[in-house]
Amino acid sequence: MSRTPSRSSRPRTVHRCTECGWETAKWVGRCGECQAWGTVEEVAPAASGTTAVAGPVSAPAVPIGEVRTDTAAFRSSGVPELDRVLGGGLVPGAALLLAGEPGVGKSTLLLEVAAQTARLKARTLYVSGEESASQVRLRADRTHNVTDELYLAAETDLGAVLGHVDAVKPTLLVVDSVQTIQAAGVDGVPGGVTQVKEVAAALIRMAKTRGITTVLVGHVTKDGAIAGPRVLEHLVDVVLHFEGDRDSRLRMVRAMKNRYGPVDEVGCFELASDGIVAVSDPTGLFVEHHERQVPGTCVAVAMEGRRPLLAEVQALVTPTSADRPRRTTSGLDGSRIAMVIAVLAQHCGIRLHNMDVFASTVGGARLHEPASDLAVAVALASATQGRAAPLGVVAMGEIGLAGELRRVRDLDQRLGEAARLGFRLAIVPGRSPNGRARTPESWTVDGMKVIDSSDVQSALRLLNLLPG
């Protein structure tokens, strides 16, 4: 008598999202992780009953003190701003993932990095899966990045890419992009979960065994997240985000993950007609130099990673007859603006309930740090009263709901940068950097007078911006 197989012995059906790799036991029309429609497909069930056994090792384990570190020393990429973000430069055998929106300049940046590395007598291989070799050559001519040690190949097959690596033997490999490379014999389309995992794993394995620094370009979704499975971010050593507004020439590289250095550094670049240029002092892009006092403006000092950046905040306040006044912001957090408006009304007597408020930053800067609250309050009070703050003033401090000014981090660096750029007066929270109350209430930093204030009301009183 034949017996029907039990329910537990049947292979389990698995459905997987082709966009993010989310798995479910039954088919659904919408992915439960990335919320994409029509991306969940049935995949072959994995074989069961496999058991891992001990096998040969690549190298014997040794005490950690005997491990050599000279083979993992930093090597300059030729682009100082990128070296700053990476913590010193490129590491042999490291795998980097650079992600960014289409058109932000990822390929232009990496072509610059590849050319600069090649000029340092380090052979470089640039593999393009999105453009032909002639198209990349045209961009290299425009950006003056044609050099002898830079090799170029246009491939979309993983085996061909590994063949080029065997032939060229590069020190740096750039793959643009990982979503366009396809591994033969692996199910799925290029850019799918299975393909991306296999391609990335093969390239990273090659990078580790041969000591080749490998940079992978990754696409992003409409929400700004890196496309493909999240395991891709776990496989690589460094994850970099390349970001910037289309209306601005400024581009920033942020380290979201870095096994070899800090993750709070930011590199600044300017996208020009002849390529991409590193900006070592980007403050001038965010501050408008006024020749006279202008109401509704104030300069804030924000921290981008460990770098202080000065950015100008501008505010415009106009009467309105609408039941719900407009609150329009650009480069600022709308919820923080609403909170500052409420504090000004409650503690400073500045009523904006019947006013339209427009607040923005200069040059496309984004100020989401609470330390910019005081600068926003000064700009709003100045616009409301029609009186300008004194020239050469910077303001920094987080505003609490009780109107108090809270301490900000890295105050010494912020004050030093403002003094270096020629500002003459700074308004800061009412405690010194070491936490002790100062006596007297003002001091000097490199010729710039610094005045501490315990609350927003006293800060506006110092600048003669209170009503009445």
UniProtKB/TrEMBL annotation:
Motif stretch (RadA KNRFG motif): 257-261
Domain RecA family profile residue range list: 71-220
Single Gene Ontology BP annotation: recombinational repair
GO molecular function: ATP binding; ATP-dependent DNA damage sensor activity; damaged DNA binding; hydrolase activity; zinc ion binding
InterPro entries for the chain: AAA+_ATPase, DNA_repair_RadA, P-loop_NTPase, RecA_ATP-bd, Ribosomal_Su5_D2-typ_SF, Ribsml_uS5_D2-typ_fold_subgr, Rubredoxin_2
Keyword annotations: ATP-binding, DNA damage, DNA repair, DNA-binding, Hydrolase, Metal-binding, Nucleotide-binding, Stress response, Zinc, Zinc-finger
UniProt key word Nucleotide-binding: yes
Residues annotated for ATP binding in this entry: 100-107
Record PROSITE patterns: RECA_2
Gene Ontology annotations for the cellular component aspect, listed alphabetically: cytosol
Location of region: Lon-protease-like: 356-468
Pfam families documented for this protein: AAA_25, Zn_ribbon_LapB
SMART domains associated with the record: AAA
Keyword Transport attributed: no
Family per record: Belongs to the RecA family. RadA subfamily.
Biological role: Plays a role in repairing double-strand DNA breaks, probably involving stabilizing or processing branched DNA or blocked replication forks. DNA-dependent ATPase involved in processing of recombination intermediates, plays a role in repairing DNA breaks. Stimulates the branch migration of RecA-mediated strand transfer reactions, allowing the 3' invading strand to extend heteroduplex DNA faster. Binds ssDNA in the presence of ADP but not other nucleotides, has ATPase activity that is stimulated by ssDNA and various branched DNA structures, but inhibited by SSB. Does not have RecA's homology-searching function.
Annotated domain remarks: The middle region has homology to RecA with ATPase motifs including the RadA KNRFG motif, while the C-terminus is homologous to Lon protease.
Protein name as catalogued: DNA repair protein RadA
Source organism of the structure: Nocardioides zeae
